[in-house]
Design a protein that fits this description.
With about 650 residues, the chain is mainly beta. The strands form ten sheets. Strands 1, 24, 25, 28, 29, 30, 31, 32 and 33 form a nine-stranded antiparallel beta sheet that branches. The longest helix is centred in the first third of the chain and has 14 residues. Keywords: Carbohydrate metabolism, Glycosidase, Hydrolase, Polysaccharide degradation, Signal, Xylan degradation. Belongs to the glycosyl hydrolase 43 family. InterPro entries: FA58C, FN3_dom, FN3_sf, Galactose-bd-like_sf, Glyco_hydro_43, Glyco_hydro_beta-prop_sf, Glycosyl_Hydrlase_43_Enz, Ig-like_fold. It comes from Flavobacterium ginsengiterrae. This is Family 43 glycosylhydrolase.
Length: about 650
């Protein structure tokens, strides 16, 4: 039976007295359209894990905020394990959708990092794990039972001062470490002795390294340590520092970090992140070689994972892994960068190697629902579900709104200086597809609500509730952090049906993705807060996916790519704006059949693109999209 209540204009407290308790009593969490026990068939970025709150005064910033970055996902005994920066543990999943937290902190003092940019790899059937350090003070941990949260020390002190480390074991059982994070120096790699974890070779050759205290000395090649990758921003536009690859010279250099090694068809793919985590163009690149320590050659298709537009922005510093069916995935770091330039989240995209062994990652519609794997499949076109965004710029009414205020921001768009900006927390922020803005109610009280009008009845398949950390008070991990809410739908804003009931939820889900077991057709959607994790009831975007049930947009007219003759790393892209389009996806690549990279644009008809490589010929096309689907791509154009 449907759960229906009549809409009245009532104070929140009276609404709860009259209706809240009775409606909750009728439902244990399962409805006709949503079953919390049923596994999802899709997921949506950012990955929905219980992102940890930073430690108190982290980076000398007093505000409470969640963050994580630098992910590594690996398979172990048929399940998936996710390790990331400063989580007081890690996550595991059977299906890459439902992630479970395992407490496993290595923090020694309250203000310390736990594990920053950790490395994990299965070595000799055992799961190995190490965090970042510039010192010689980190153990190498291992376990054969990661869900227990218990680790033993393989070695007490790893003499290699590895920041942003990666572990790789080759088919011949040799073990390698790669590491580095610098605006000046290259990433390096070396074979290590499995028993001692010391770099191979005469230890006297590493005496200077073992005594070094400055990063410039620590990250240099010594002994058998080899340079494996370095940036060339003078030739590669996307490797340039800045909000839009536009800060030359870079004040701290163009950063290379986030090493990862993937072996495919006998070739070694040396992955790295650049140019900095706080920018929309943060991406993963790759160099290719015939040996685990190189030499490596810059792959012509680069960056291999790139997402500078949309709700989720940024795809750098992650790893590449194969799922249980043999499909590849690339993980990365996406930015919020308001309360702290290191305020970040984690994303994951379909990836692979094409028939020419070119490594790619598909980020097109990468923050819309993506189909989870159930078998091996071709991912050169991605794995989008086809469910479109229904909520963009739709009007929202709310129970209350926090007042505007002057806020000290730490985002690098302002050069890293302390800047006070006026932030407002109105309902328009709920549907602007901007992860840096959010709506906040005046309280966290049960009964605070938001109500969206889609404009007409639409077919709804999924929702994503992206909570914001407004006036939160939590620092570091706690095991009583969770959200509870209910979602109702209606065609007249008077008679409401309870579609999603999370009133009994006890799992932390700050980017909660809800896939309906069957579609619901409605015009209005209402969310009622029951319990908030910390701070005020605040949401960045309330995102709705499905089908608008009308016409797809027509093909784009007047599409042009004007490559800068003075600096061929830059191009101005333009097209005629369409009334029937919500947004556009620009595709580009090194061959007409390798248009693997994409740029999502909302509400505009130009894009200042500064991510091209000198001396490389490119091919471009564009497609429009709206609530009803995706329009036809334009004829591919060649850009020399």
């Amino acid at each position: 039976m449907k759960n229906i209540y009549k809409h009245f204009t009532l104070p929140i407290s009276l609404f709860l007295i009259l209706f809240g308790n009775s409606i909750s009593a009728q439902n244990s969490g399962k409805t006709e359209w949503f079953d919390p026990a049923k596994p999802a068939t899709t997921y949506c970025n950012p990955i929905n894990i219980g992102y940890n709150y930073t430690t108190f005064n982290h980076n000398r910033i007093p505000e409470s905020r969640r963050s994580s970055a630098d992910p590594v996902i690996i398979t172990y005994k048929g399940e998936y394990y996710l390790f990331a920066t400063n989580q007081a543990g890690f996550f595991w999943s059977k299906d890459m959708s439902d992630w479970n937290f395992v407490y496993g902190s290595f923090q020694r003092e309250p203000g310390d990092d736990d594990q920053c940019a950790p490395a994990a790899w299965v070595v000799n059937d055992t799961l190995f794990y190490v965090g970042s350090t510039w010192k010689r003070d980190h153990p190498i941990w291992k376990t054969a039972d990661p869900k227990s949260g218990r680790w033993t020390r393989h070695v007490n002190k790893a003499m290699l001062p590895t920041w942003d480390p990666a572990i790789f074991q080759d088919d011949d059982k040799k073990v390698y470490m790669y590491y580095g994070s610098s605006g000046k120096l290259p990433l390096v790699g070396v074979e290590v002795d499995y028993k001692t974890w010391l770099p191979k070779g005469n230890q006297a050759d590493y005496a200077t390294l073992y005594k070094a205290t400055e990063v410039e000395d620590i990250q240099k090649p010594y002994g058998q340590i080899k340079e494996v990758a370095i940036l060339d921003p003078s030739a590669h536009g996307w490797e340039r520092f800045g909000p839009n690859n536009d800060m030359e010279p870079a004040p701290w250099g163009n950063f290379i970090e986030g090493a990862w090694m993937t072996k495919h068809n006998g070739k070694y793919y040396m992955q790295y992140g650049a140019p900095a985590t706080e920018f929309k163009g943060y991406a993963n690149g790759v160099h290719v070689g015939d040996n685990p320590l190189g030499p490596f050659t810059y792959q012509k298709h680069n960056p291999m994972s790139y997402k500078p537009g949309g709700f989720v922005i940024g795809a750098g510093h992650g790893n590449t892994f194969a799922d249980n069916y043999g499909n590849y995935w690339n993980t990365g770091t996406c930015k919020i960068s308001i309360k702290d330039r290191f305020e970040r989240r984690i994303d994951m995209f379909p990836a692979g190697f094409d028939k020419d062994d070119v490594m790619y990652s598909i980020t097109a519609y990468g923050d819309f629902p993506i189909v989870l794997p159930t078998s091996q499949r071709d991912q050169t076109k991605g794995a989008a579900s086809g469910w479109m965004l229904l909520s963009y710029k739709k009007p929202v009414t709310v129970s209350s709104s926090e007042e505007c205020m002057e806020v000290e921001t730490h985002r690098m768009d302002n050069g890293g200086k302390k800047v006070y900006e006026k932030f407002c927390y109105g309902p328009e922020n709920l549907t602007d597809e901007n992860i840096q803005t959010y709506w906040s109610a005046k309280t966290d009280n049960p009964g605070e609500w938001l109500q969206m009008d889609l404009g007409r009845p639409m077919e709804i398949n999924a929702l994503q509730i992206n909570y914001a950390d407004h006036k939160a008070t939590q620092f570091n991990k706690a095991m009583d952090i969770y959200y509870q809410y209910k979602i109702y739908m209606s065609n007249d804003a008077q008679n409401w049906t309870l579609v999603v009931d999370k009133s009994k939820n006890d799992k932390d889900a700050p980017h909660d993705y809800v896939e309906l077991s069957k579609a619901f057709k409605a015009r209005y959607i209402k969310m009622e807060n029951i319990h908030n994790a910390s701070g005020l009831f605040a949401i960045s975007d309330f995102r709705v996916f499905g089908n608008g049930l009308e016409s797809k947009p027509k093909a784009v007219a007047s599409f042009k790519v004007d490559r800068n003759k003075a600096d061929s790393r830059n191009a101005m892209i333009s097209w005629k704006k369409q009334a029937d389009a919500v947004g556009y996806n620009i595709y580009y690549g090194i061959e007409p059949d390798k248009l693997y990279n994409s740029i999502m644009v909302y509400g505009d008809n130009t894009y200042d693109f500064r991510g091209l490589d000198k001396g490389t010929k490119y091919y471009f096309t564009i497609e429009p999209f709206n609530e009803n689907g995706i329009g036809a791509k334009n004829k591919i154009i060649e850009v020399k």
